[in-house]
Amino acid sequence: MIVIDGQKRDMDIRSFENLEQVFESVIEQGFLADRIVTDVLVNEEPFSEIYPNQSEDIETSEVESLEIKSSTTVEMASSITLELYKVVNIMAGGGKQVAELFRQADDAEALELYQDLLDVTRDFLGMVGTLRDQFSLSKEIGFEPIVDEFSSLFTEMTEVLENEDWILLADLLEYEFLPSVEKWKNVISAIREDIRTAAKG
Question: Is residue 140 pLDDT above 60, yes or no?
Fold first, then answer.
């Protein structure tokens, strides 16, 4: 039995040799056109490939049921924006924590957390950039000025880091990074609105 987004499909799993062929047939028949696969359940157990093309090695004789769940790019983008809110809060919490550690002269711990903070921030900016490109977001969002502010702040923080001026770095995190992070909440809110508009269009 094959179920795609809650609907049974008239496809016989046994007419295929392996799971890979089933997936290819589902795509060829257009069941997932303009959609992103979010979950695959094989025999009611979550399935994701541990290594590339693992589905080729799973014979259909082992498969009793197959369920594929998907969402539209707009639904996916909308759920990503919810994740971005969480990331903003993580960035704010991380910034505060790193600043406190530097002030307590716990430099090793602070530097380790600071590196994590940079990684999270880099991923965050990448994700926001992807959403902006995907949905050609409106200019009113004020995306560019905040990115520019963020970039120049990180340039300054990198210089301060190289000079090992931990107290100044703590000040920058507390008085410039944190207010800057707060501004992203409005940006994400505006992105959500743009995505909703795209969904209606």
Answer: no
For residue 149, being part of any structural domain is answered with yes
Q: At what angle do helices 178-200 and 107-134 cross, to 10 degrees?
A: 20
Q: Which long-range contacts (CB under 8 A, 24 or more apart) does 117-124 make?
A: 117/91, 118/154, 120/87, 120/90, 120/91, 120/94, 121/91, 121/150, 121/154, 123/87, 124/84, 124/87, 124/88, 124/91, 124/184
pTM exceeding 0.85: no
Asked if the model's pLDDT at residue 113 lies above 90, the reply is yes
Report the pLDDT averaged over residues 127-133.
Answer: 78
Q: How many domains does the chain have?
A: 2
pLDDT value of residue 72? 79
Do 106 and 156 belong together in one domain? yes
Has residue 44 been placed in a domain?
Answer: yes
CA distances from 106 to 64, 72, 153, 179 (A): 56, 46, 23, 24
Mean pLDDT, the chain, as a whole number?
A: 87
Domain that includes residue 19, residue range: 2-64
**69 falls within a domain:** no
- Whether residues 18 and 86 share a domain: the answer is no
